[in-house]
Amino acid sequence: MRKVWVLILLGVFLLPACGEPAPNFSGLVVDDPGPAPDFTLTDQFGNPFTLSEQQGNVVLLFFGYVSCPDVCPTTLGVWRMVHEALGEDAARVRFVFVTVDPGRDTPERMREHLAIFNPDFIGLSGTEEDLERVYKAYDIVHDRVEAPDSALGYLVNHTASDFAIDTQGNLRLRHVFGSTADEIVHDVRLMLQ
Predict the structure, then answer these.
(1) Phi, psi values for residue 159, rounded to 5°
(2) In this structure, is the dihedral angle defined by the CA atoms of residues 17, 23, 25 and 31, taken in order, positive or negative?
(3) Per-residue confidence of the chain (193 residues) as pLDDT tens digits?
(4) What does the alpha-carbon distance between residue 121 and residue 105 come to, in Å, rounded to a whole number?
(5) Residues 104 and 121 sit within 8 Å (Cβ to Cβ)
């Protein structure tokens, strides 16, 4: 009888150690993953885009603007490499770019700009009130900075990381600016499993 109890106790203590290991993500893991804040905005073709309707896909969500001189085109270039590296799996990933400069980022400008990187990328805008709700939900910094010596007239300082939302609609990760395409591909593939 003593051997039976020893085996039962060993099973109780060893079984949890034999379970599935936690995924080893490259990005910054959200401490307590939960549903990503939902929103509906308008895409570059004039169609409504609702985040919660994307379940079943991984969503990479970035806040930027078309006239951005550095961070945004770099991020979109990395996304292009991620899309290419994913091959057929890219059909299950939504690359979503939300403007922080709605005054200049018209649907036409966003459509033309995103198509340079990949025509599958989704560019979103909306009313200032709708956008402000989304910025607040994701804690997005976006400050207009006058640049009188620039042809642009002004720049927008903004949060420079993307958010990764898993196939169940949970906010799982953040990829900081400078994350490589390989790191993001690794994380996306884990979330697609």
Answers:
(1) -55, 135
(2) negative
(3) 444 343 333 444 444 444 455 569 988 888 888 999 999 999 999 999 999 999 999 999 999 999 999 999 999 999 999 999 999 999 999 999 999 999 999 999 999 999 999 999 999 999 999 999 999 999 999 999 898 888 888 889 999 999 999 999 999 999 999 999 999 999 999 999 9
(4) 15
(5) no
Q: Which residue type sits at 54?
A: Q
Residue reference for tokens 């991984």: 58
Closest CA to 192 of 96, 89, 54, 121: 89
Name the pTM for this structure.
0.86
Amino acid at the residue 184 = I
Residue 28: closest CA among 189, 193, 178, 129: 178
All domains in the chain, ordered by first residue: 26-192 (3.40.30.10)
